[in-house]
Amino acid sequence: MVADPWSWYAEIPIVSRLYLTASFLTTAACALDLVSPFSLYYDFSLIFRKGQAWRLVSNFFFFGMFSLDFLFHMYFLVRYCRLLEEGEFRGRTQDFVCMLVFGAALMLLAAPFLAVHFLGSSLAFMMVYVWGRRNEHVRMSFLGLFPFTAPYLPWVMLAFSVLLGNPATTDLVGIACGHAYYYLEYVYPVVAAIRGWTPRRILAAPAFLTHIFGPAPRRPDIPRPVIVEPDPPRG
Question: Considering the domain boundaries, does residue 20 fall inside one?
Answer without folding.
Answer: no
